[in-house]
UniProtKB/TrEMBL annotation:
It comes from Selaginella moellendorffii. It holds the Pfam family p450. Its cofactor is heme. SUPFAM superfamilies: Cytochrome P450. The lineage of its organism: Eukaryota, Viridiplantae, Streptophyta, Embryophyta, Tracheophyta. InterPro entries: Cyt_P450, Cyt_P450_E_grp-I, Cyt_P450_sf, Cytochrome_P450_Monooxygen. This is Cytochrome P450. It comes from the Eukaryota. GO terms for molecular function: heme binding; iron ion binding; monooxygenase activity; oxidoreductase activity, acting on paired donors, with incorporation or reduction of molecular oxygen. PANTHER family: CYTOCHROME P450 FAMILY MEMBER (PTHR24282), CYTOCHROME P450-RELATED (PTHR24282:SF211). Heme binds at residue 389. The chain crosses the membrane at residues 6-30, 247-270. Keywords: Heme, Iron, Membrane, Metal-binding, Monooxygenase, Oxidoreductase, Transmembrane, Transmembrane helix.
Length: 444
């Protein structure tokens, strides 16, 4: 390498380092001398020091001492403290980035419904998932998002979802037969199994059977030809189609396995609810597989799933970043500030849910979700507004079918090896899996 090349490389390196240092200082300067006073003047206060979420998440934390559903102090200890000291709207940090964290329904309404145009998806979530979701709908913004949503969302409308019941039944039946053989092989009447791993595999299978209908091959081409959306799709670049499939695969198996796992925990912990749900399954299905018309009749399972999602929301934080100076309620939000909805805190707020907030009580959903708490937006596992989850109906249908199949064939007990340690790794998951004891029902 000649001298000029060496000098050029050194110059580029020096500029890169300078740029990194400057942007770091800028961020700090902005936070320390500009942003904090703006927020504090409005009465919004928060932690003076950034916590270390990476450390909290991955290392060194002991399991919960007992199986309690009061999980906020365990999964987000800083949030539990901040709510106590600063209230339901406070400042916090994501690494070095300041964020306003909210668990106040009226302000969440403004963020997700009234003022949604002033916010975009935050790169906060991309830290966790960019390599998985790539450029798909989950991360997209602006026109790119609108175009993708228009193409993908109709695939999950209720009639389309009903048409997927058979595929879910087939995949689930195979797994049930495998579980029965697994217990039989032990020569015992019951056997322990980590169902979390099983649910992940099952969901990959279900998503493959249902989602591959999106790929424009063979018969799908014929279907798509008669739809206007196909015209949109052929204009979408190949990498965007791949990104969409990755998104649907990832959301399918990342989000459903934890919900199903925690539901198994609830069934094991509350045998009275397990029995109630089983009686409903036996009555509605009468030994047959679930048909599309049966799905809406499984109301006890529906309540159990909702109460599980309340206590253990799969998506514990919803993150946005402000792109235009705006107001959320009475709070001025400057452009560039991150905003997070703390769904765990919202779902565990005593003022909204009452004194039994940390108890498992599916009956609170007997008249639906809107009246279960003191505010209709107190329950939001699938978010609200234009970016609400497109997979909601699909997830509810799939989970009902899987749980109905399990109850039809097995009794579920808690394993002595279960260790209670919900943890946020992006989704909220049981850190040590979900070992339960399965006992096939003899009379089935
Ligand atoms: C227990 C199951 C599930 C839960 C709790 C859940 C929850 C959520 C939440 C809270 C959001 C909003 C995120 C945000 O605004 O930042 C979301 C978005 C999304 N979900 Fe789900 N989800 C589930 C299952 C699924 C499934 C099975 C699919 C695939 C079909 C799916 C596909 C998506 C997509 C594509 C988005 C982005 C939508 C957009 O931004 O327009 N989800 N989900």
């Amino acid at each position: 390498m000649d001298v000029i090349s060496v000098l050029l490389v050194a110059l580029v390196l020096a500029f890169s380092v300078l740029w990194m240092v400057c942007s770091f200082l800028m961020r700090y300067y902005w936070v320390a001398s500009a942003l904090r006073p703006v927020m504090e003047k409005q009465g919004i206060r928060g932690s003076p020091n950034p916590p270390n979420p990476i450390f909290d998440v991955f290392y060194g934390k002991p399991d919960m001492k007992e199986i309690s559903h009061d999980i906020l102090p365990h999964v987000l200890p800083w949030a539990a403290q901040h709510i106590k000291f600063y209230g339901n709207v406070h400042l916090n940090w994501w690494l070095r980035e300041p964020r306003i964290v909210i668990s106040e329904p009226k302000i969440i309404w403004d963020l997700l419904m009234k003022k949604h145009k002033d916010f975009v998806k935050s790169h906060f979530i991309k830290v966790f998932s960019d390599d998985i979701f790539h450029k798909g709908l989950f991360h997209a913004n602006g026109e790119d998002w609108a175009r993708q949503r228009q193409i993908v969302a109709p695939r999950y409308y209720i009639d389309e979802v009903k048409a997927m019941v058979g595929a879910v039944n087939n995949a689930t039946s195979q797994v049930m037969a495998k579980w029965e053989a697994f217990v039989k092989d032990s020569g015992d009447v019951e056997r322990e199994l980590d169902v979390q791993v099983e649910f992940m595999n099952l969901n990959v299978d279900v998503v493959a059977r249902t989602t591959l209908g999106l790929i424009p091959f063979g018969i799908n081409v014929e279907r798509w030809k008669v739809r206007k959306q196909f015209n949109d799709l052929v204009h979408v670049r190949e990498d965007v189609i791949v990104a969409e499939l990755k998104t649907l695969y990832a959301t399918g198996f990342i989000s459903l396995a934890p919900l199903l796992s925690f539901t198994m925990l609830m069934l094991a912990l509350y045998p009275d609810w397990q029995e109630k749900a089983r009686q409903e399954v036996d009555q509605v299905l009468d030994g047959e597989v679930v048909s599309p018309k049966d799905v809406s009749k499984l109301t006890t399972i529906e309540m159990i799933l909702r109460e599980t999602l309340r206590l253990y929301p799969t998506m514990p934080l919803i993150a946005r970043v402000c792109i235009k100076d705006t107001m959320l309620g009475d709070v001025f939000i400057p452009k560039g500030l991150g905003v997070s909805v703390n769904v765990v805190a919202l779902h565990h707020d005593r003022d909204l849910w009452g004194d039994d907030v940390n108890e498992f009580n599916p009956s609170r959903f007997k008249n639906g979700t809107a009246t279960a708490a003191k505010h209709p937006m107190a329950f939001m596992p699938f978010a609200y507004g234009v970016r609400t989850c497109i997979g909601r109906a699909f997830s509810e249908m799939q989970c009902k079918i899987i749980i109905a199949n399990i109850l039809q064939r097995f009794e579920v007990k808690l394993s002595p090896n279960y260790r209670h340690h919900p943890v946020i790794t992006g989704p909220l998951i049981p850190k040590h899996g979900m070992p339960v004891i399965l006992k096939p029902r003899r009379n089935f």
